Amino acid sequence: MKISPALTAGVIVILTCSAAARADEVTVNATSYAIDQVLRCEPYEEYGTRFELELQGLHRNEGTRAQVDVSILAMGDLRIQEVSWSGPEGLFSRQGMPDEQLFELADDRVFGSLRLEDAYGRGDGISFAFDLTLPESPFDCR
After folding, report:
1. How far are the Cα atoms of 47, 85, 109, 125, 130 from residue 115, in angstroms, in the given order?
2. Fewest Cβ atoms nearer than 10 Å: which of 20, 52, 73, 140?
3. Contact criterion met (CB below 8 Å) for 84 and 116
């Protein structure tokens, strides 16, 4: 699957943590999680916002469940990238500023390394790295 060059053009990549994830893996601080399934939701538009990319990566292992969500929202000419993690560590997320690149897109992969903040503002953030394979066919998530 090829992602439109308009999604990635003219943006500088800034990596904020040294951890790197392997293919279909998420690394939270020093703990790695294998991602068992990656769903790429059908693009859609709602209230003037286009959801150009929406991935859900699922981890299930011996009672442990976790999910990484990666998305690109477009409002007019602005693009906003978002990353969130729900796992044993809690719920963490980061929404980039318009046209700020939080992750990279390749022909068949989405990957990045960044700091996620506690979604409830109660604690410290986490170092987060991920590398997900883009599924060829989209899934009807709605």
Report:
1. 29, 11, 20, 7, 11
2. 140
3. yes
